[in-house]
Amino acid sequence: MKNEERNEIQNLQQVNQPYDYLIVGGGMVAAYAVQGIREYDKMGSIGVVSTDMDVPYTRPALTKKLWTDDEFTQDQVPLDTEENGVELKLETAVTEINRDQKTVRLDDGSILSYDKLLLATGSEPIEIEGPDDDRAIFFRSWEDYRKLRAYSGNNNHIIVVGGGYIGTELAAGLIQNETRVTFVYPEEVLGEKQFPEEITKEYEQPFREAGVQMMNGKRAESYRKDGDKIIVTLDDGQEIEGDALVSGLGVSPRTDLAEESGLKVDDGVIVDQYLRTSDPNIYAAGDIATYPDEILGSNRIEHVDHARNSGETVGKVMAGSDEPYTYTPYFYSVVFDISWKAIGTLDSGLETMIDEVGEGKVVYYLKDNKPAGILLWNVEADLDEVRSILDNPPSDPSQLKGAIQEKED
Q1: β pairing state of 180-185 and 213-216
Q2: Model confidence pLDDT, tens digit, residues 7-47
Q3: Please, are residues 57 and 78 in contact by the beta-carbon 8 Å criterion?
């Protein structure tokens, strides 16, 4: 018997269980993919392999409601994925995909086989140089929330790094929970890369009024431990001492597994309108998928609305649906009394047109005299109207005035 044949037989003997649907990643994409599968296939076997220690959960609550809504508790965070007859393998990593044999190898050496495979590996946070320590939190998971919650309150001092979604929401949430906050971000004015000047002034003001120490125009270079404290060193040499550090410096898509298995990758895993990769039996959705958006073109989005909708669609497709992914997702944030939603490109370097709507604003980001992105600033409007304008914009940008109105209660 040849060595190759012997190895193949040995591999087959190691297969623990075949799955009709195997999902790599245990985030919101996985949870909604399971729901999509079950709409078309009530009985097919589903396995979910996740490096997370928790069952799939609603990620936005970790930076929003758990800090600002006393009636929202951690009991409401799980997404009840197990109720759909799913076998969950937590704190487990897939180390290799064998596309020819349609198997994956786990970090414990065991092998699982699949009929359809979904890659939903999400993203990993960008880190600052420093030692491993529970007080240095690169925020991404429910466990990160629990760590941060343990260090917050009691007038403790938390250093928040990064002026994006995670940083702004956590800085706002922490200051509202009896915590002293120093907020380090590279922009001279918070949000200046995304928002026009008129908006950034409104955005930064409530942080200052709430007592957040704003360290604008600064970057965190590294951190170190000092007893029971964390010392953060800034790019100008200044040092800040805190009880903990929480960082939201952005994320990078976890595409290593796809690349190593030979799938087409360019920024993200390349998929078609059915969220299929270059292998017809392997799909990708959520943060890692670069997909053809009908309005925005080739796109990769790291936001929850995309996770939900791409997850549900890919689940249906894997189970037999011929429904393509035609949805253009929105993204949003809530800090203090400010709520905003957007679709498309938010780049303050573009020409902007601001329309006063009720007590809020609609901002149109213009490229070649056409809207490339639309921001709803404290405006509750029909998002399908926003998509329609992006898809079929007027020939004259002045006609955008009054095009979007606030929803009636």
Answers
A1: parallel
A2: 554 454 466 789 999 999 999 999 999 999 999 999 999 99
A3: yes
Tokens of 140: 């991404």
Three-class secondary structure of residue 42 per DSSP: coil
Distance set, CA 321 to CA 53, 96, 324 (Å): 32, 28, 9
Contact 189, 201 (CB under 8 A): yes
Nearest of 34, 26, 77, 29 to residue 56 by alpha carbon:
26
Task: Write the Ramachandran bin of 317: left for phi over 0, alpha for psi from -120 to 50, otherwise beta.
Answer: alpha
Domains of the chain (ranges; CATH) run: 3-124+252-318 (3.50.50.60), 127-249 (3.50.50.60), 337-400 (3.30.390.30)
Amino acid making up residue 323: E
Instruction: Read off the pLDDT of residues 360-404 as tens digits, 9 standing for 90 and up.
Output: 999 999 999 999 999 999 999 999 999 999 999 999 999 999 999
Question: CA 331: distance to chain centroid?
Answer: 10
